[in-house]
Amino acid sequence: MSTQTLRVGDVDLADWRWMLEALYARFETGDFSAGAAFVAEVARIADELNHHPDVDLRYGHVQITSTSHDVGGVTDRDIELCRRISVVAEESGFAPRPDKLQALEVGLDTLDPDAIRPFWAAVLALGDADSDALVDPAGELPGLWFQDTTSTDPARMRFHFDITVPPDEAQKRVAAALKAGGRLVDTSHEPSWTILEDAEGNKVCVCSALGRDD
């Protein structure tokens, strides 16, 4: 099966959303036992295809992430796996909930990424200290990436959150944040990301794959 990296527009899977170089889906299973049985079937399919996703089993739902780590993106292997999983979910009566999907990253503004990256890799036990972004191999902590800055203002906020959601949910999330007292800071990069801040000036980017991973 092909290992060529695909683009966002190449993927047409109703249950799945492209976020952070991977395909994500969430299925409502109702209870833990039903979810566990679903995961067992996912494992069988993954072994058959020799392509294995990350699976998060909770009491009422299962969330699945699929990517081809050897090429750093989504390939035909992921498409086939995701299609097979969706068939099982539909046959089992498990509703997809793409509106519930989200992935969190943390950005750190820095004058010298190379000087501080090893510290954060060590203290958080995140991935390879030589990589631009640090990722938890177990997938339990959000990734940490480093944003170059020339500002030495001690009052400047150094950390900010990047929350990535499906493109069809991004503006809903922005609207909810504004209704909750947030303020728009920058919309010039939409639909890739919108910068918001709370009443005290703490910033967050609401991101989607459109334009960002394309």
Explain this structure.
The chain contains 4 helices and 12 strands. It has 214 residues and is α+β, with helices and mostly antiparallel strands. The protein has 2 domains: 93 residues, Transcriptional coactivator/pterin dehydratase (Gyrase A, domain 2, 2-Layer Sandwich), CATH 3.30.1360.20; 105 residues, 2,3-Dihydroxybiphenyl 1,2-Dioxygenase, domain 1 (Roll), CATH 3.10.180. It has a 7-stranded mixed β-sheet with strand order 7-8-6-9-12-11-10, with helices on one face. Strands 1, 2, 3, 4 and 5 form a 5-stranded antiparallel β-sheet that branches. α1 runs antiparallel to α2. The radius of gyration is 19 Å and the shape is globular. The relative contact order is 0.15. This is Putative pterin-4-alpha-carbinolamine dehydratase. It holds the Pfam family Pterin_4a. It comes from Tessaracoccus lacteus. Belongs to the pterin-4-alpha-carbinolamine dehydratase family.
**Content-based structural category:** alpha+beta
Order of helices and strands: EEHEEHEEHEEEHEEE
Write down the Rg: 19 Å
Distance between the termini: 22 Å
Residue share in helix: 25-40%
CATH class of the largest domain: Alpha Beta
Mean pLDDT: 91
The overall strand count is 12
Domain module tally: 2
Q: From the coordinates shown, what is the CATH architecture of the largest domain?
A: Roll
Largest sheet: 7 strands, mixed
Low-confidence stretches: none
Shape: globular
- Major beta sheet, strand line-up: 7-8-6-9-12-11-10
| Distinct helical segment count | 4
CATH fold assignment of the largest domain: 2,3-Dihydroxybiphenyl 1,2-Dioxygenase, domain 1
Strand content: 25-35%
CATH superfamily of the largest domain: 2,3-Dihydroxybiphenyl 1,2-Dioxygenase, domain 1
